[in-house]
Backbone:
């Protein structure tokens, strides 16, 4: 089984900017993103950067979403998207705006984009080291979280005339976590190891997977399996 990742969940202390929970007038931007500096940051031409920039996102399109502070809706119909490279929720004030900012990273703030829920989780009590997770299943004992990461791969020149140049790219990886009381267990890739994580109900889970033709390599089926496992506890 892969290593257990322990994420220290910090006490949700309100920053002064959030003193009025019900107010929607506070600044939810942590900073403004300068679009003109993006290509320069990677040492690429504007054309090179524009050809790969969409790869850095879980979904490159801005979609209308909601911003919550704990259980309170504080902003509705906000254009937003998740940047898997920068690990940020990018938001616009208006759909027609060319410029956009990054949502402030705070564990009391979460967003909903259609059916997707993103929560911010500190690491070892630090917001700076923390990150966003997509909540796939919210159970009474276990939750299922998804982490999408995009890494920048620099362009590579072919070493021989038989090889091809490799263009720059943002390849993505997806990791799933079984979460209980702030403890994150990284989900393994094999069916047998996933079932080992559910040893307490292994017999029931084997029967459920067989009878329902569950493929644990598929996200939708993994969600069903974890939700059923949680219902047995």
Residues:
């Amino acid at each position: 089984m892969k290593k257990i990742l322990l994420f220290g969940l910090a006490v949700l202390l309100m920053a002064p900017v959030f003193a009025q929970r019900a107010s929607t007038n506070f600044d939810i931007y942590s900073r403004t993103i300068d679009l003109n500096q993006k290509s320069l940051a990677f040492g690429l031409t504007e054309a090179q950067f524009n050809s790969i920039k969409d790869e850095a996102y879980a979904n490159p399109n801005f979609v209308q979403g909601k911003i919550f502070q704990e259980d309170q809706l504080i902003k509705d119909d906000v254009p937003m998207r998740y940047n898997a490279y920068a690990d940020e929720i990018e938001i616009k004030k208006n759909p027609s705006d060319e410029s956009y900012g990054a949502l402030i990273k705070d564990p009391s703030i979460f967003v909903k984009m259609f059916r997707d829920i993103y929560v911010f989780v500190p690491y070892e009590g630090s917001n700076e080291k923390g990150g966003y997770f997509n909540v796939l299943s919210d159970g009474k004992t276990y939750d299922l979280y998804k982490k999408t990461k995009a890494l920048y791969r620099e362009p590579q020149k072919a070493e021989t005339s038989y090889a091809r140049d490799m263009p720059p790219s943002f390849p993505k990886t997806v990791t799933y976590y079984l979460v209980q009381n702030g403890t994150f267990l990284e989900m393994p890739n094999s069916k047998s190891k996933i079932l080992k994580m559910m040893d307490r109900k292994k017999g029931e889970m084997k029967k459920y997977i067989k009878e329902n033709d569950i493929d644990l390599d598929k996200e939708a089926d993994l969600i069903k399996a974890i939700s059923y496992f949680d219902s047995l506890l």
About this structure: The helical segments are 38-41, 46-52, 191-196, 202-211, 219-232. The longest helix spans residues 219-232. Residues 1-26 have pLDDT under 50 and may be disordered.
